[in-house]
Structure formats: structure tokens, C-alpha cells
Amino acid sequence: MTDNYIERILKARVYDVASETPLDHAPRLSARIGNRVMLKREDLQPVFSFKLRGSYNKIAHLSESVAKRGVICASAGNHAQGVALAAQRRGIPAIIVMPLTTPSIKVSAVRALGGEVVLHGDDFDTAYEHAQAIVRERNLAFVHPFDDPDVIAGQGTVAVEVLRQSRGDLDAIFVPVGGGGLIAGIAVYAKYLNPKIRIIGVEPVDAAAMYESLRAKKRVTLDRVGIFADGVAVKKVGEETFRLCREHVDEVVLVDTDEICAGIQDIFEDTRSIVEGAGALAVAGLKKYCALNDWKEKRLVAINSGANMNFDQLRYVAERSDVGQAREALLAVEIPERPGSFMQFCEALGSRAVTEFNYRYGRKERAQIFVGFGLSRGKEERDEVITALRAAGYGVTDMTDNEIAKLHVRYMVGGHVNGSVANERLYRFEFPERKGALLKFLQAVGTRWNITLFHYRNHGSDYGRVLAGIDVPASDTAEFLDHLNVLHYTYSDETNNPVYRIFLGA
After folding, report:
1. Would you call 51 a catalytic residue per the annotation?
2. According to the model, what pLDDT value does residue 363 have?
3. Domains of the chain with CATH codes
4. Residue 305 among the catalytic residues
5. Which pTM value belongs to this model?
């Protein structure tokens, strides 16, 4: 089977539409982590993603009789643009089924390429099922985003270029993983030419379908996936891609959103280009892997897979990148409520640059402040500061890794609930960022129970995030939860979250 894929990759028809992208040295990142890092610039493709390689190769191999009926695909964006461009080049119609949550930049790009866009469902799986229904109804050719030999072979041409450009002198290639088409094609070809090259996949910790499948030794379906890196937000990997990854991929590393944001910043600092979340996965994983395994003096490649970033999302990336780079710490600190306390605290903090300082007078003996400050030596320095502050008599809670603190409470500090609210509960919600979603939430909850706290901030992402305090008597608990479940919004009870207790709770 491997020989068959090698032939398919070498005969793949991709360069009618795709470019041979450069393999660029990343000098700043290389110097910082002590390895030679090279970036495969698939973000420079005509549709700003590697996806057109596989989609065009598939469409190019369709017979004339099949192709003239038209093609269809389901995609959150990058594959969609590849299919639309490939169909345009062959002169055939294309229907693109996209989730309602797809960023507008990707929807507009598909329409500009002549694709007929059908928006359906809240995620890829729902869009996929709808596309299959249209296939059956209109007898169209379905172009799978990853689980197809021609698509896998088209993506495998990335490895042909990488090995030629690097002359095969590599220790590892880091590859972003969604459904597995890109890493499967790269792994088959790279391992065939040089079995010593390690092929390491990278997934978000909240969309780890391949990681979990390889661990279970069978394909697993995730209950839900995070969508910050929407290009890899897949609940179940492909059957063929899983088979190839089991044979040829060495391991998969997981990274969180902050680490992805830090990767976006790393790429920008070396290239002055801004990639999307999925496009920075490989860099984020490369950094984490090198740190965990103490790798030095290695020759490494990271695949920059795409640059279809929603511009509004950049403010969120900028906020989170310093935490992801371990360049910022966030602490809740208890200090005496008396004149001079702030000055004494700042003296204890030393000369470090304060990035955030939130406080509100509480008219009590003790005050709670939320402080952020810069780090030059990462977690080691953060731990030293916490130890020093505690030794000076301050109560300190480390909030650097607390999601509620980073998303919401840092903007809301200064409001403990008064005695008139006896049954406040705190919930975190996620809902598709589209018209009517917020109203639907308020209609289900706000007309029956008193909302005592509410924070929403649009980060330009596909899902809205709300933090809400709701006054729910114990006797109403079952009825209240029934209302939440009818919404079908993801939610979690954060009433016992320590950051809530310190800054907002009773």
C-alpha cells in the first residue's frame, strides 16, 4: 500500500493551481529555543492554505462524465476554498456546505471563487450530513476534506517539497492534525524516503481526535470540539488517515489555546505574516515538544498550514499570547485595606512591569487585587514571585491558568454580591455567534430567574462566551437545569471556581 501512495503522490496534479511554497528559516524562534526551525509556508498558497492541493488532485482525477455533474463538499473554510478554486479551474459547478458558524472571511472567499455556498448546522458534522443528503438527491461527486486517497496524495506533495528543499537533512516534521489528510500524506512520503525523520502531529487539547484514536488503537468520536483552531475542529478522524497514521506517525502532541496564540506571535515575529489558529499549531507543538524533551541543535520543520484569520480575532490572540509564551503572570493577591498598602505591595513585587492591576475599594480590613505582570524567565520566575509575596505576608492565588480569570473576571473585578442575593450561581456559556443566539439565551433564563451578573465580550471567534450569575433558589434547581438543557448550549457551573469566590461571590 505504501508504494501505491508514493506513486500517487509523485503523480499528483496540484501545480495547475498550487504553488511550490518556500521553506523559510525562522531565525528568532530558532535562537530562542536552540534549534534550527524552518517554516513550510503553506499560508502563501493562492487560497492561503494547503487544502487546494488535495481538493484539486481529487477533482482533476474525476472522469469527464462525473465532473460535469458538479462537485460538493462540506467544510468550515479552507477545504471549501480549495474545492471552489479547483472547480472553477476545471469549469464545473461546486456546492460548498458550510456550518453557520464559519467566519465570514471564509464564506466570502468561497463565493468570490464561484462556489455556491449552503450554510447549514452549527458544526462540521452537521454540515457533512447535509452535504451527503444533497449528494444522494443530485448525484454529485463528493470531495472529502481528508479521507480520500487522492486528497491524501495531493497533501503529500508538501512532503516532496520539504524533503527536496531541506535535502532530507531533518530530525522531525511537525504537522497540524484535523481529520488527518495532511499528516497522512506527509508521513507516508517522508518515512519512505527517510525512516529516521520523526513525524509529530499537533492537535488542540480540546480537539484531540487523532491523539485519542491512536491511544485507543481505534477511531473515537469526540463529544465536542473547541473551535478556536476551526481548521482542525474535527470530532472523528478519517478511516484511511487513521490507518496511515498508525503505521507512519511517531506521536501526537497537544497544545492549548494560549500556546497556539503564542505560536501565531512567533510566526509573525519571524515572517511578519499572520496565520490562523490551525496554521500555528505546528509551531506551538514544536516549541512544547522541544521543551519537554530538552531538544537542542535539531533541524525541525513546522507546517504553517493556513492564514485565513478572521481579523476581529486578533485582539483575542494578542491578549492570550503573552500567557502562552509564559511572558505574563496573573495573580489574585490579598492585601491590607489601609493607606500605603499598594506601595508596599509594589515594592514587594519589585521592578517587574505590571501589565494589569484591578481593584475596587471594599470597605473591609482586607482587599483583593487582580494583578498581571511580565516575566522574562517563565514559570520559574512566576513561582519565585509567588513564594516571595507569600513570605511577605500576602495571600496569593495563581490565576495564570484559570480560564474564567483570563476570559471574564479580569474585566469585572470589584463587585462582591450583597446580602440581598442569597442564591447566586455562576455559569459559563458558549453559543454559536449568530443573530438571535443571545436573545434565545435571555428568553430561556432571564424571564424566569433574576440575572445578577452578566459579562459578554465578542472576541471575533465563532462562539460567543458569556459569564452569568443567576439567582436560583435550591427548590428551583431541577426546573432551572431543564431550561438550560433545552437551549443545547454548552455550559458549566462555575459557582465553586476560586476566582469567583475571591472577586465576585458572596
Report:
1. yes
2. 55
3. 2-49+149-320 (3.40.50.1100), 51-142 (3.40.50.1100), 326-401 (3.40.1020.10), 418-503 (3.40.1020.10)
4. yes
5. 0.76
